[in-house]
Amino acid sequence: MENKPSLPMMKSKNLQARLMLAFSALFVFCVLALSIFLFNILQLVSLNDQSQIVFEENRRVYQLEAMLKHYHMGLQNYAISASSLAEMRLSALDRRIDETLIALQEQPSAGDPAPFESLAIQKATLSDLAAQIIAAVDEQDELYYEDQDWSEVADLSLETNALFTKMYAEIGVVRTAGVDELDNLSSQAQTFSWFAFAAALLSIPAFLFLALVVALIVYVQINLPLEQLARAVQDLKNRQFKPADLAGLAKRGDEIGQMAQEFLQMAAAVEQRTTQLQQEAAEIRAKIH
């Protein structure tokens, strides 16, 4: 006898389980959609940071190439001018080139400072050659015209030209890689941006659909049965209740079904009691008459 209530109690959990399942599905969908959206946004932020680093590196690479060209031209023209002002300009360019190479080595976008280390080594060699050219030009300027011998300057110039050509080629490779990396980052950003937009765009109607489904489940599983029970109460009050009206509802294995069964039992008891009272009243009237 003590085990009988366990079955209705187990069945009474069905409605709660269905509602929890519906709300859990809605919650999981919201979390999933939000996670996808936030993941894409975070990826966009990360790609934007990387793009800024690559862009800054490319800017410095272009700046380095421009300064090297000015440095190259300055060395070629130094033999003509051989002035202290030209030497000061070359010295200033030399320092700026070194500073740019140091900055590129400290924070390379691809995480590989090897190309810039190679350029720094070649730049050190170039500075030595430039110093030798300046010294050789100054030495020849101090001689009389007929005693001057510019062969050493010419040899040094050829060597520096070859070194400049090699550095230009390596800078061109770095510059091309930087442009390709920017294009790749831009392409990835467009992809993640599209996914973020699609997630935001699709999650709204999907969320509304799921919310509508949950609302329909709540309405069909709770509101309509409660309204049916309320009408049954009114019918019982007006003595118009028919047990068949709640027959389908009483077959449910949840709390609503248990309420319907108990209401039918109560209605039957009320009907039985009403019939008994009517019979007793009829017997009393018969005795009086």
Comma- or semicolon-separated keywords:
single chain, 289 residues, mainly alpha, Four Helix Bundle (Hemerythrin (Met), subunit A), 2 domains, 7 helices, rod-shaped
The CATH architecture designation of the largest domain is: Up-down Bundle
What share of residues is helical? over 70%
User: How many whole angstroms does the radius of gyration measure?
Assistant: 46 Å
Name the poorly predicted regions: 1-12
Number of strands: 0
Order of helices and strands: HHHHHHH
The general outline is: rod-shaped
Question: Under CATH, the topology of the largest domain is which?
Answer: Four Helix Bundle (Hemerythrin (Met), subunit A)
Q: Strand portion, in percent? A: under 5%
The separation of the N and C termini measures 50 Å
- Class based on secondary structure composition and strand pairing: mainly alpha
Kindly provide the name of the CATH class of the largest domain: Mainly Alpha
**Helix count, per DSSP?**
7
What is the makeup of the main sheet?
none
Multimerization state: single chain
The average pLDDT is 81
